Each structure stands twice: as C-alpha cells, then as structure tokens.
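Q: How would the structure tokens look for this protein?
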Amino acid sequence: MPVMFATPEEAELAFYEVLERADLNRLMQVWSEDEDIVCVHPGGLRIVGLPAVKESWQEILSNGPLHIRPAKMISTQSMMSTVHSLIEQVTMRGPNHTEVVHCYATNVYHKGPTGWRLVMHHASAAPEQSGLLEQHDSPGLLH
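A: Here is the predicted structure in token form.
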C-alpha cells in the first residue's frame, strides 16, 4: 500500500530515514513514479527514469545504510512543487575510522494524487576546506 506524504517535509524526513535503514522498497515509495525523475549522486552521472534511479540506489544501499543528517534547509515552494536546498552531513564508517563529509543537496518535490513525492535529488560534494556547517553559507557572495 503506497504511503501518502501530506507535506514535502514529511517526504524528505522519510527519504533520509529510509537511507539510514537501507530500505530500498520504502525509499522508492518516496520517489514519484513519473518517468522523468532525476537523480545525481556526488560525482556521478545524471540518472533519469524510475528503473535507473532504483538501480542506482540498489547499488548504493547494497553496501549498507547511509548515515546522512540533513541540515540548514532553505525552501522555495509553490502550490504544487517545493525545492529544498540543504547540506547533508554524511558519516562514513570504515573498519578503523569514521569520516564526516558534507554534500550540498537539492531535493525537488511535486504534489500529485498520492501526495508529495520526490522528483529530483541532486547531491554534490561540498569543498573540503569549508569545515563546519556554519561556514557553508556565504551571504552576499555574488557569482
């Protein structure tokens, strides 16, 4: 039975929770079933379409759960879509050490007949020298 997400925030919370459990089936319930969904993993190619997105997550989650803490979310929303820009704090655990890296992520949600669903996830590595989360935002910086 499909899960109904009443808000984009509910869908986003579910997205990061199921990554922690490495639950591919629940993860794919967060995604829209539209054929034009898009996912870009850090350093990876653009992946388009539900089967390809599912396959990419299956490969990633086969290595176990992902420990990602979303932070510093900025939201832009309209009646039928919402864009979240956030910083992901990714904890990578190895046999002899733990490393924390940061990624910038953009999650786009659309509202449809089954509630809010993820249609795009784009994550990229944040610069290593940026350090703490407080240093990630540069107000007033022009391109």
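The mean pLDDT is 89.

The chain has one domain: 8-128.

Upvote if useful.
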